[in-house]
């Protein structure tokens, strides 16, 4: 199973919104098939491993990091009939598939066919590996990572909105790497106005050379309640490279909706919630489009909107050794303070490491 898990990780970054899955077929103490799921839409790991094993799968044991599927999914036929036809003797599964259309039914079908089935081998590792998939497939919303570069006193900008640069070039490079791991990036229109980010994934080639743009780019999402985004904004350019979606409210002036659409930009009007883009509905819409992970890059108002509703799953804060001070400076999570200290959230699985002259503090937000 350890090998199957290692194989699964090779699909990292390419299987979304589907899970990373690894499979190993063992017959007479020897490995006769090994495979991993390479990309959404391509064959499932167990199908590839069984194909490799051929007739040697008869009487063999299959180690699989996720319960095999038994449903006709969007892209591929069910795997369970193939497992039965291969005449396996035993199937060892790390975890049940949380997908509501599978969830135990795959295992049941195998047992009914007389195959010995056990579940729970290295389950914790398997669950952690597919944290994003598990969240998306059960909630219909993307896994949300809140990322920010902040001072030691938790400020992300001066009162006037100056923020370039709080963190070191190394930390900014690490943040770019993070962009390359997600399906979409979300910012508020305030951030577009203040910083004019491109929100593309760029990897520097060598010191002194211009940045290289990666061929695959996450969807750029802007929350803009009244459509005040400037037409010259950098996120509206280079659309052949990276797509942009502007999430707005049904209260936004129709003329602006039309202008943007005429320019070929996708605008998504949603029923407003206290005059603003409703975050829960936006996330559900993104989830429906197959966005399983979302990186939120601020600012403080947008961060607060997601935070208040308990929609943040993970934080990655780059903390620089700067002290800014000032009540009017922008905080990483804006809005009003909760009434009691008991309402503060304690992160789990905390990890801290130095990146350049900054510290990257990352942790998981416990489910409420
Ligand atoms: C995978 N790879 O190795 C396994 C999966 O979109 P489809 O048709 O490929 O189906 C995706 C579902 O198949 C997924 O949600 C999960 O329930 C099941 N198993 N998926 O992408 C795999 N074994
Ligand atoms: Zn399958």
From TrEMBL:
Keywords: Hydrolase, Metal-binding, Multifunctional enzyme, NADP, Oxidoreductase, Riboflavin biosynthesis, Zinc. The active site is at residue 46. Its EC number is 3.5.4.26, 1.1.1.193. In the N-terminal section; belongs to the cytidine and deoxycytidylate deaminase family. Binds 1 zinc ion. NADP(+) binds at residues 149, 165, 191, 195, 199, 225, 299-305. InterPro entries: CMP_dCMP_dom, Cytidine_deaminase-like, DHFR-like_dom_sf, Eubact_RibD, RibD_C, RibDG_C, Riboflavin_Biosynth_HTPR. This is Riboflavin biosynthesis protein RibD. Zn(2+) binds at residues 44, 69, 79. Pathway: Cofactor biosynthesis; riboflavin biosynthesis; 5-amino-6-(D-ribitylamino)uracil from GTP: step 3/4; Cofactor biosynthesis; riboflavin biosynthesis; 5-amino-6-(D-ribitylamino)uracil from GTP: step 2/4. Converts 2,5-diamino-6-(ribosylamino)-4(3h)-pyrimidinone 5'-phosphate into 5-amino-6-(ribosylamino)-2,4(1h,3h)-pyrimidinedione 5'-phosphate. Its cofactor is Zn(2+). It holds the Pfam family RibD_C. One of its GO terms (biological process) is riboflavin biosynthetic process. Substrate binds at residues 163, 179, 202, 297. It catalyses: 5-amino-6-(5-phospho-D-ribitylamino)uracil + NADP(+) = 5-amino-6-(5-phospho-D-ribosylamino)uracil + NADPH + H(+); 2,5-diamino-6-hydroxy-4-(5-phosphoribosylamino)-pyrimidine + H2O + H(+) = 5-amino-6-(5-phospho-D-ribosylamino)uracil + NH4(+). It comes from the Bacteria. The lineage of its organism: Bacteria, Pseudomonadati, Nitrospirota, Nitrospiria, Nitrospirales. PANTHER family: 2,5-DIAMINO-6-RIBOSYLAMINO-4(3H)-PYRIMIDINONE 5'-PHOSPHATE REDUCTASE (PTHR38011:SF7), DIHYDROFOLATE REDUCTASE FAMILY PROTEIN (AFU_ORTHOLOGUE AFUA_8G06820) (PTHR38011). GO terms for molecular function: 5-amino-6-(5-phosphoribosylamino)uracil reductase activity; diaminohydroxyphosphoribosylaminopyrimidine deaminase activity; metal ion binding; NADP binding. Residues 1-118 form the CMP/dCMP-type deaminase domain.
């Amino acid at each position: 199973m350890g090998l199957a898990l290692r194989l699964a990780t090779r699909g990292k970054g390419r299987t979304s919104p589907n899970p990373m899955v690894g499979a190993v077929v063992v017959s007479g103490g020897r490995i006769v098939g090994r495979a991993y799921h390479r990309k959404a839409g391509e064959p499932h790991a167990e199908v590839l491993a069984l194909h490799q094993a051929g007739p040697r799968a008869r009487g063999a044991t299959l180690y699989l990091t996720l319960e095999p599927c038994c449903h006709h999914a969007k892209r591929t036929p069910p795997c369970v009939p193939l497992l039965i036809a291969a005449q396996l003797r035993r199937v060892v599964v790390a975890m049940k598939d949380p997908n509501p259309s599978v969830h135990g039914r795959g295992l049941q079908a195998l047992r009914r066919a007389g195959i010995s089935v056990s579940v729970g081998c290295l389950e914790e590792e398997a669950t952690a590996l597919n944290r994003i998939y598990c969240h998306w497939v059960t909630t219909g919303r993307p896994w949300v990572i809140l990322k920010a570069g902040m001072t030691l006193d938790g400020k992300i900008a001066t009162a006037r909105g100056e923020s370039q640069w709080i963190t070191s070039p190394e930390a900014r490079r690490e943040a770019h790497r993070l962009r390359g791991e997600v399906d979409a990036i979300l910012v508020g229109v305030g951030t577009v106005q203040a910083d004019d980010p491109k929100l593309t994934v760029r990897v520097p080639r060598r010191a002194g050379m211009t940045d290289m743009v990666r061929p695959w780019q996450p969807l750029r999402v802007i929350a803009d309640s009244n459509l005040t985004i400037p037409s010259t904004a950098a996120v509206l350019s280079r659309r052949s490279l990276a797509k942009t979606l502007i999430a707005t409210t049904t209260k936004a002036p129709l003329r602006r909706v039309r202008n943007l659409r005429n320019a070929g930009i996708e605008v998504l009007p949603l029923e407003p919630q206290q005059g603003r883009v409703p975050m829960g509905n936006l996330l559900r819409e993104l989830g429906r489009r197959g966005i399983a992970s979302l990186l939120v890059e601020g600012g403080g108002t947008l961060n607060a909107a997601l935070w208040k509703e308990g929609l943040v799953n993970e934080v990655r804060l780059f903390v620089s050794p700067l002290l800014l001070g000032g009540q009017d400076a922008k905080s990483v999570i804006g809005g009003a303070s909760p009434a009691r200290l008991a309402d503060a959230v304690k992160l789990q699985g905390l990890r801290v490491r130095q990146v350049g002259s900054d510290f990257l503090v990352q942790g998981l937000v416990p489910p409420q």
